[in-house]
Amino acid sequence: MKTRVVTGRSVKLTTLPAFHGRNFAKTSRKEKTSSSSEESSPPPLVSHDYKKPRRENYAFIVVTDHEGVTEQSPALEMTEKLEEKLQAILTKLEKLDAIEKSVKILQETLAGMDSRIQSLESAQASAYRDINDLKESLNFAEDKCKKTTESFNEYKQQISLQMTELEQKGNILEGKITDLENRNLYLEAYSRRENIKFENIEEVTELNTHQEDTERVLRNFLESELGYKDASCVEIQRVHRLNKKKDAKPRPIIARFLRYKDCEQILSLGHRLKDTGYKMYQDLPYGIVERRRKQMDTFKTAKRNKIPASFSKSQPDKLYIRGKLWPIGKPLDVFSY
Fold first, then answer.
1. Which residue blocks in the chain are alpha helix, DSSP H?
2. By 3-state DSSP, what share of the chain in percent is helix, strand and coil, each rounded to 5?
3. Which of 32, 67, 127, 132 is most buried as measured by Cβ atoms within 10 A of its Cβ?
């Protein structure tokens, strides 16, 4: 240790070991190692710029005044300020490493998001294409459906017109068929107008032939029961029993006379068979009989009340009361006549 006197002050030259720079370097190296081991960030810039201090002693001047107060030299103060600045720089570098790491993570995340966005964009484009295809298909289907509907409506109108025409033709044909049926019935009734049916006449068989002479039985009936004077000479075209014999009940007899006037005379004597059990009536087709049956009550009511009523000869199903055609099903008001 050396001492100098400077302008009334005692100055001591003190040689101090240079541990500040060495310890600072060691501290910086330890912080560098720990930060590099904890984080995969690049080493701080101080490791490249910092030079290893020499192994020598640094001289610091300590000035002591007359009162014994010691003052540090400006070199020591600059060293401490430099140390603080370096420490602040290291802290900022650590923050930069953390920021760099975060930036890398963000870059990776953004890269993943970019790939996802690209996949979403491709999916969206594919969806748009599918939607466009569906729109085209739907438009095509709508056009086709519209054309089909139009053709169906036209076809429906045609069918409706054809059905109307067919209904009209059917009504006409139905009327013609009804007219033909009526004509057929009237012709059949006209061809049977010389026929008369007799019921409940006993069957008489011959002893020799075991057969019945139906014509002789009928003539005897006309003469004995009806009192018909010309029974023996009336001309009969054909006479026979109907159906096969099943029981003891006699079968009906149908006779066809040659002249219609003879039939009228015989039928006019029908009132003599009242309460005898015998029946006699004109042979008519089944259709005419069914139509007459619907008007028989009206016919009998008119007869009981002595109202002129009769069935037409040319159209045997038509009932006329007082010369007027009587509709089927219309009730007869006796008090109005």
1. 19-38, 46-49, 74-191, 214-224, 260-268, 286-304
2. 55, 15, 30
3. 32
Q: Cα-atom radius of gyration of the chain, to the nearest Å?
A: 72
Please state, as a whole number, how many other Cβ atoms lie within 10 Å of the Cβ of residue 284: 21
Structure tokens at 173: 């044909």
**Amino acid letter, residue 106:** L
- Tens of pLDDT, residue by residue over 216-249, are 999 999 999 999 988 989 999 999 999 888 888 8
- Comparing 43-57, 176-190, 245-259, the range with the smallest average pLDDT is 43-57
Distance CA(31)–CA(36), nearest Å, equals: 8
Residue with tokens 């039939």: 263
What stretch of H or E contains 64?
strand 58-64
| Farthest CA pair distance, the chain | 205
Q: Helix 19-38 to helix 74-191 angle, to the nearest 10 degrees?
A: 10
